[in-house]
Task: structure prediction
Amino acid sequence: MIEKLAYSKTNVKHNKSFFYYASFTIIAVIYFILFNSNSILPDNSTVMSSALGKEVTVGSTKLAINRWEYNENKKFMEVELAYKDSGDYVATKLNFSAKAKINVKEKLDVKTMLNTDNIYIVRINNIPKNYEAIALKVSQSSGENSNIKVDTSDITTDVFSSDTTDESKIDDVDDVIKGDSTTLYCDYRKVKINNNIKAETQKYYIINITKSEISNIKKDITTVDKSIKRNESLINIANNKINNLNSQIKYEIKEEQNNTNQKITSYKAKITDSEQQNVNLKKTKTSLIDKITKLKEKINDLENPNAKPSIKPNAKPSIKPNVKPSIKPNVKPKVKPSVKPSVKPKVKPSVKPSVKPNVIPNIKTDNVLFKLQNEQQDLQKQLDLTQLKHDEEMKKYEDNYKLFIVNLKESKELKH
Result:
């Protein structure tokens, strides 16, 4: 009995220790899951990311994101913005400032890498490891105030937690910048990772942007070609319909023929409309091809800056100055003095330029006008003669008709 009681006591102690160990393990697992839920469980927070290609307004400037890329290894982002100014500013400058969602109290380093007539490339440096989302505030200022600091006090944690996913709806009223502003967002779940981007020269950026523009124009040309083919197929279908209706119209009654003619007219109108569309589309295609040629020329000039002066400036002077003096001075002294030096140089320049250019064309035109006048007079005479003949025939017809009536009356009276 004593041994059994001792065994039961040790068994209870062992069970208690096992219970404590199990409870501690469960608590540790729950603690680990709660504090690492973002890395284990999917993130259900609002996606704060502005749409690519969507236009937003900053004062008098329309702005759109072409690309937003993130170099994860070097911890910087590169944003390419397309813009066009629709206001009355002499020169428009865009100012930038950025913050990360994880720390809205600290501004990030923002640098403008390129500024052309329609493109801005902005680099955001020192991106935090768990940044979650980045807010890039864009403000407009005149060209005179180019170094204005952007006030980002309105970018707070509440802004990142709002339901706005495309653009900021904050009314920007501050004393630092005059004019409107907008805020663009990039979420870690939407950003494009590109570890190959690096600091480049402005020349490199311009060439890449130009190549991208050529690629987009080629896509537009493909779209135009598809539209032309679609219109051509519509024209063929309409022509086939017209041929079928024309082949059936002779077997229809008048009411059916009227309905068929209306259908034919509508098909012809569609053909005319499609043909006109194709004319306009072909003009557009020609303009796009010309644009590609100019852009390729721009790339060539940027890649080969030393080749530019040797093509255009020296081409025209090398032809005109060397050809004309080599022909006129060498031909005239050899020919004219050998034949009649005293007559031809004095007579021909004075007679031919004054007579042939002015007299001969006048004689020809006068002859033509004289012939036309004669022909017109002859036609008028013929018309007058035909009118007289017609009048005479009408009179004869009326006289004969009157005689016929008289004779008819006389015959009736004789019968009675």
Notes: Residues 163-178, 310-365 have pLDDT under 50 and may be disordered.
